[in-house]
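JOB MANIFEST
job_type = single_chain_structure
chain_count = 1
residues = 157
[input]
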Amino acid sequence: MGENREFVLGTELHTRILTTAAETDGRHDFTDNVQSPHARTPVHLHTRYEERFWVVSGLLTVWTQQDTVTLRSGDYYAVPRNVAHAVQAGPDGARALQISSPAGFAELIARTGTPAHLATPATTLDLERFMAVTTELGDVVLGPPGTIPADFVAPQA
């Protein structure tokens, strides 16, 4: 991956990769993510890894097939593999530490993000590249930002 560990995805997400798959023999990766106010992911799921969020500051709402939780500083939430979810930052944005296990998220960021030192306020996400890489890594995008898992997936019994 080289020395560059800070990336942006458009203007919505700034990520610093703290550990990579190569550094943990693929067991996990660890990122520090700052999400812009009201930034929201599309509804998606991960077939190869689970995600764990620990909120450092701000608010982070997570919608899953069964839960809607709003996390505050110090709160933790885990999204299991194959569970549809969406994540949105609160009105002041959010900063959260994220662990993916086995590793996967940091690779997505490194391969699709813009190195932070090259980003400008006009930097946009290459959505075609993002979709190709996220699909290659086993992620499934179910719906656009603004939707929730219940719009696409019936709750699990």
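[summary]
The helical segments are 105-112, 127-136.
The chain has one domain: 6-141.
exit_status = 0
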